[in-house]
Amino acid sequence: MTKVTVDSETLAKLYGLSDVLELCDESGQTLGFFRPVGAEPGIRLADRSPFSAEQIEVFRQQRTGRPLAEILSDLEKRA
Q1: Maximum separation of any 2 CA atoms in the chain, in Å
Q2: Radius of gyration (C-alpha) of the chain in whole angstroms
Q3: Which residues in 1-79 belong to E strands, given as ranges?
Q4: What are phi and psi of 33, to 5 degrees?
Q5: pLDDT tens digit sequence for 67-79
Q6: Which of 18, 30, 66, 73 could lock 45 by a disulfide, CB 3.0 to 4.6 Å apart?
């Protein structure tokens, strides 16, 4: 990976971004895209989970709740 150090003026333009930024040259030709650390496609930084990756994995492995077939059956009864 190539590392580029940005000047303070460019840094001010990038500060506070929570979404992907398209970088273009003066003619409007796309050079590439910049994604701030922590930003994920379609997700703003403010929407990020307060849980660590390890906690999320523990939650994923816990199987609680009702089976889908039971939920669908209940919904059909209400219709």
Answers
A1: 64
A2: 22
A3: 21-24, 30-34
A4: -130, 145
A5: 899 999 999 999 7
A6: 18
Share of the chain above pLDDT 90, in %: 15
For the segment 3-18, what is each residue's pLDDT rounded down to a tens digit? Answer: 889 898 888 888 878 7
Q: Whole-angstrom Cα distance, residue 55 to residue 61?
A: 10
Q: Identify any residues that bridge with 21 across adjacent strands, giving them in sequence order.
A: 34
- For the chain, give every domain's residue range: 8-78
Residue for token digits 């390890």?
A: 54
Torsions phi, psi for 32 (to 5 deg): 170, -170
Residue labelled with tokens 């303070």: 8
Backbone angles phi, psi at 72, to 5 degrees: -65, -40
Which pair of tokens denotes residue 63?
């199987």
The whole-angstrom separation of Cα 75 and Cα 28 is: 52
Predicted pLDDT at 36? 80
